[in-house]
């Protein structure tokens, strides 16, 4: 989003015009940013056989999936519904990896029927898989590297107390299960967490995974997950994926010499690809001054963007309507009936009732984690593509809220 001649634009499209046309609250995604992030990651690992699988739990709108498919991306999925969305979006089954946790075996069977890559993170499930499929269907195994990493405890998933993955200390048991059921393991996977800044964390995890790979002679790929940090606040640093690409490429080539052949590698970024592309535009309903705080109350809340309340996440906020106004301090709050804050004590250009505010970096885990809490409607979504805004999801209405409810004629 750029300020051009006194107005904010996304790829030449006026933000205020979009808010007028489609209403607020409104999610808007810039396709140029998604494409640039995808190409940046591909370029960082250009000297390897790399496959980028978009972690679609970050943002599952089918138009976003179609766009990433057109760029050459694969798809990382965590539910059978995401698998089905990916297939509807045009992804080939072999370009979809299914990495569930704690699901029924029936869901695993459905994934096999769809023909996608199945990634198992549990010894019990692997035994069930082997008992039914043996070597007839290949499988990937998710390892837990016992590395604590990530920007928040809730998104750290590779440590010893995590529910995810098979412990690296269970490698001998894993080998026995694979041999006993004649399981064909063609991939190894790990994921340590999100918002990881230090590339040494990735390299340490890669060393653990590659060391484990020596126990599996028939591998075709290794999947290093993701967790690349993006820029939320103006002072934030980001993961140096270019430096990581150089160092990890060197490590992969060294491993390939001892392994006997070069494996192709995978990453599964979600936030890295879509977070910075997205904005949540909200309208200021009220300005309320108390004895200690000036609140800007907006027409949205944690029902639309839960990250600030759930993860204490920072989202930069801009007053779109008054870009040259005097700076003042506001706490930007939502309309949900409990403490519901987007940002405390933010320095914003003076905010008036009716002004449009932008919450930045809202492309990942914004709409996908939204809800109908307080019986509020979820907002519309717009994608700007080649200088034109496209409505890719309409705003909900009362009929949507009632569509799955069954009316019973009670006799009281």
Say which CATH homologous superfamily of the largest domain is assigned. Alanine racemase
Question: Which structural class is indicated by helix and strand composition?
Answer: alpha/beta
Distance between the termini: 57 Å
Q: What is the count of helical runs?
A: 12
CATH top level of the largest domain is Alpha Beta
- The radius of gyration is 23 Å
Share in β-strands: 25-35%
Shape, per Cα inertia axes:
globular
Number of domains: 2
Poorly predicted residue ranges: 149-159
Tell me the helix content: 25-40%
Largest β-sheet summary = 9 strands, mixed
Describe the protein's architecture and organization:
The protein is an alpha/beta fold. It folds into two domains: 2-28 and 275-402, Lyase, Ornithine Decarboxylase, Chain A, domain 1 (Beta Barrel), CATH 2.40.37; 60-269, TIM Barrel (Alpha-Beta Barrel). The protein is 29% helix and 25% strand. It has twelve helices and 21 strands. It has helices at residues 15-22, 31-44, 62-71, 80-88, 105-114, 123-133, 171-181, 199-213, 241-259, 271-274, 307-311, 398-402; strands spanning 2-4, 7-10, 13-14, 26-30, 50-55, 74-77, 96-98, 117-120, 139-144, 166-167, 185-189, 221-223, 264-267, 278-289, 294-298, 317-319, 327-333, 341-349, 356-359, 380-385, 388-393. Strands 4, 14, 15, 16, 17, 18, 19, 20 and 21 form a nine-stranded mixed beta sheet that branches. The protein has an eight-stranded parallel beta barrel with strand order 5-6-7-8-9-11-12-13, surrounded by six helices. Strands 1-2-3 form a three-stranded antiparallel beta sheet. Strand 11 (185-189), helix 8 (199-213) and strand 12 (221-223) form a beta-alpha-beta unit. The longest helix has 19 residues, at 241-259. The protein is globular and about 70 Å long. Residues 149-159 have low confidence and may be disordered.
